[in-house]
Amino acid sequence: MSASADPQATIATTRVRGSKAQRADALHDLSIAHVELGHLDVASRFAQRGLRLTGEARFHLTLAWINLDRGRRRQSLQHLDLATPHLRGRELARARCLRGLHLCNSAEPRLAIAELTAVIKELRRYGDERWLANALVGRGIARCGATKLAEAEADFAAAQTLLQAIGEPGRAAMCLHNRGFVAMLAGDLPLALRRYEEAAKAGLDSTSRPEALVDRAEALLAAGLTTEARRVLTPALELLKRCKRHVPELAVLSARCALRDGDPVPALRLAGSDVEFMLAAGELDAVAAHRFRGPVQTRALGWLAQARRSDRRGALAACRAGIRLLDEHLGDWPRRELTGHALSLARSPREVLHWSEQHRASGSMSLPPNQPELAQALTRLRRARAFGLPMEALERDVRRVALAATPRSSADAVRLPDLPLVSFVERGGQMTAVTLMNGRARLRIISDPAELVGTAKLALRAGRPVVTDLLPATEEVVVVPDGVLHNMPWAALRQKVHVLPRLSCWREPRGRAERVWISGPALRHQEVTALQRKHGGLIAESTVDGALRALEGAGIVHIAAHGHVHPDNPLFSYLELKDGPLYGYDIARIENPPEVVVLSACESGLARAFLDAGTRAVIASVLPVPDAQVSEAMTEVHRLIDHPAEAAKAVAHLGFSCYGTGTRVAACRAAANEVPVQRACVEPTVAGTSTPSTTTSTHEP
């Protein structure tokens, strides 16, 4: 077995003794074994000993490889120059392979591709499978640099197959990791994370290849998980220092993390050409030049720069081009920046509504897949919470597993309700309302929305009617809130209010009638027992597994359990059941979500998880509900449950509202390709103050 195939065994069994030739062979094997384990200092010492012993060119070749691995290109080329005149046949082809690998780092990857293509033919002729794999990997890297991603994927896949066949699973795993890097460049973040995960399971040792951690950190950063990216970078930095490897991307990535956390100083200190830093520094022309070539995210940043340097019309066109690019490649970042910039430029009610919906969609989370590994990660998290153990690392595991898998699609055709609509959106430090009603569209500024919410809640607690002109004076209205307005007790404002997180959550009823009743611990169960006795249905086991089984395909679900809202990630919000939390991640895994959900004992933050999973309507409160009033209130809710918005209105004095589509028969129509605002709207009074600062009204046929 070769030193590279089983380096640990080579180190354990090899002794430097015997004849000069035997000692040279032993030193060479030990050097190669330590290279494989990432012990570059030790590997270099053995190679230097062999060179002093015999002066053989193979030791120069090994030292050239070691120095290239360390990022010391000049020393590597010196050893290569000393070795090449003494090499013939297979060894000369290996030297040419190393020169090709040097060219991978050049500004012109086509030179590396040409050199390595020639070398690959030679190595195939000699049957040198290990070095053939090296050359294929090098050409794959060069093809990544040339944005020839399909060809790069083919090279890495061929090298992986070859290394598996010759019994080198660790290096084969590195090829699989490289295929994840190709997916990352193509903008397919879930596939990239999945391949990184599979490579780690297949035997990729990040202690000997810390560059793999750098790649993983970049993927986490692209997913918006800046804290997780920094945690991965910390051990990578230590390992690279220990190995004495120079990886320029590490400093770049660390500064990018700081930039995402709102600290541009480390980024602006770098004098590199990274497009994200250039964008932060305001070098818009230079960044915009990248919009036609390079990885997906680089091109998307180019379109963002183009938007920032253009007039309003050109900026909106650039934002549309960037979003179209991300849609084509399933990319996410910098979608939110593109939609946010376009939203800031929008003027007409139609534009504001369109870009506000695009912006909301860019901030929504994909549904994680219903797979065993995610279920196991959530079980470990529940167990840790039950025993009071640290949970931060386990939460990271849940996010990692969910990101690494291909998400389930929840994208239905956007439907616009055939009802008056008020969509609120924060932009430019102000709350804007777009109202669509009776064929007219209106744009208004809402003054001090936080005060409006506070006043409404105080009025409810005092038993007074809530008086505000936020909504038009109609019997029924659809509301899409933003910012602090998510906490408004909407049902207390008008007869029937449907509160949507975004318009894509407007759904037609499916007509299911099956009822499910779930009680959490530390709550009186008389409420659920009495309701079940009156309305029938199944009282589900108050455990996570029991609840999930009962929720699958249910019609109306009543949950009397306390809930806790996670401020940063709604999928970590949870309902407290007998054996632990039922997380938003659990709810998102439901394949056939319940149609209507009533949350009688927890505040409305959990409604979002059900709506994102596909539930049509959720009745929940923005206020803590006194136990003494719950039973009577829930009796009234279930009397009217066929019309959820009407049911919520009946208990609006307790802070309840209907989230989602609360109609008995949803009056929906399919939308056009973009959110349509052709149906426009009247000029209703929608401002929260009698002296709005801006009003725009348009009639749109």
TrEMBL record:
Superkingdom, according to UniProt?
A: Bacteria
- Mind telling me which Pfam families this protein's record contains? CHAT
- Locate the coiled-coil region(s) and give their ranges: none
- Domain CHAT: residue ranges: 526-653
Give the protein name, as stated in the record: CHAT domain-containing protein
